[in-house]
Write a structure and sequence with these properties.
protein kinase A regulatory subunit binding, 22% helix, 133 residues, 2 helices, AKAP_28, AKA14 protein, AKAP, alpha+beta, 4-stranded antiparallel sheet
Length: 133
């Protein structure tokens, strides 16, 4: 069976603020099918001015703290970009895309289903690297 790609109704360019963008990312993340042991925090990083748009960069940092190890050995970051066009009407929804730490592949919320395995792979690879060093 084909899985349903979950998305949210993204804010329009004329209603956008940095904080509303962060809250929308949180709302989108809440549609992901991840185990409740995963915790995350989101933060705004920077604003980028381009010729035809403005980009707002955010980071969502994920980890699985436990009672025995409340400070996890490694974390996984997902980088979101919210782009507002200077050319298209401000009444259109913002463009959103994200990349995983250590990957250059660009994901769009309306085109891909997030997989918890991506977070696990990032953390496992970091732990393997730390053990080798």
């Amino acid at each position: 069976t084909k899985s349903v790609i979950k998305n949210i109704q993204w804010i329009t360019g004329n209603n956008f603020t940095v904080e509303k963008g962060r809250r929308q990312i949180e709302e989108y993340i809440s549609t992901w099918d991840v185990h409740t042991s995963w915790l995350h925090c989101s933060e705004f990083l920077q604003e980028e001015e381009l010729n035809y748009s403005k980009r707002y960069h955010y980071r969502v940092c994920w980890s699985v703290p436990t009672r025995r190890k409340p400070i996890p050995r490694a974390t996984a970051s997902i980088y979101f970009v919210i782009e507002i066009s200077k050319i298209k009407p401000a009444t259109l929804p913002v463009e959103v895309f994200f990349t995983l730490e250590s990957s250059r592949l660009i994901h769009r919320p309306e085109q891909c289903q997030f997989r918890e395995k991506w977070l696990k792979d990032i953390i496992e690879n970091k732990i393997i690297l730390m053990e080798r060093l």
